Amino acid sequence: VQGENRLYPSAWTSDGRWLVYQERREETGWDLLTVEVDADGSPVSVAQPLVATSANETNPALSPDDLYFAYESDELEGPVDVWVRPFRRSGPKTRVSTGGGRWPQWGGPGDLFYWAPFSQSLRRIRYRIDRERFTVLEASVAWAGRGEPMVVTVSEFLGRPFDFDPETGQFLLLEGAQAQGGEESQRVVLATDWGGSLAAGEGL
User: Fold this and answer.
1) How far apart (Å, rounded) are the C-alpha atoms in residues 193 and 93?
2) Would you place residue 170 in the very low, low, confident or very high pLDDT band (cuts 50, 70, 90)?
3) Where in the chain does DSSP place strands (E)?
4) Over the chain, what is the mean pLDDT?
5) Is residue 126 scored above 80 in pLDDT?
6) Can you tell me the distance from the alpha carbon of 70 to that of 44, in angstroms, rounded to the nearest whole number?
7) Are 152 and 120 in contact (CB under 8 A)?
8) What percentage of the chain's residues is helix, strand, coil (to nearest 5)?
9) With contact defined as beta carbons under 8 Å apart, do 18 and 11 qualify?
10) How many CB atoms are located within 10 Å of the residue 48 CB?
């Protein structure tokens, strides 16, 4: 998939037929699109917009059954929040985060997780599908952030700061360098013969 704008791949459907990606457009900012591909990965259809508005839509995640996708949007002109829509079919959208949400990730049956950047915590959404409508049942904290014995500081510039294994229920999170004891991890590094190392292709 090629274009004049910046493109970033985001997710595949479980059968490998549809690629979901985000595109930065001059007129509308970040939009979400999908394209059908063949077994070789070559597009067999014209890209179709999933969400393309004047707001920025980013970081889509497909549900395990490929019926819904969660994504980020700043359409409320405030903090970026997480929303859910049906995938490749019409239907209402549902806002699942309040006060800011990023990096949605589907968990086990009936679970959706996202990172709350302002509280530095991992949130869990319990949901159900009622007559093809996504309904939030409960919101809770899955992993506490600031103010707890272990402080977790996440860099959001590296991509989604956590992952979840639905089989074991375990999380993997990026932990900040100052997470324990509040001590700085910075140190002075002396690199010798750095010019020779670069010339030899070794790096530093």
Assistant:
1) 58
2) confident
3) 6-12, 18-25, 29-36, 48-51, 57-62, 68-73, 81-86, 94-95, 102-106, 111-116, 121-130, 133-143, 162-165, 170-173
4) 83
5) yes
6) 25
7) yes
8) 5, 45, 50
9) no
10) 12
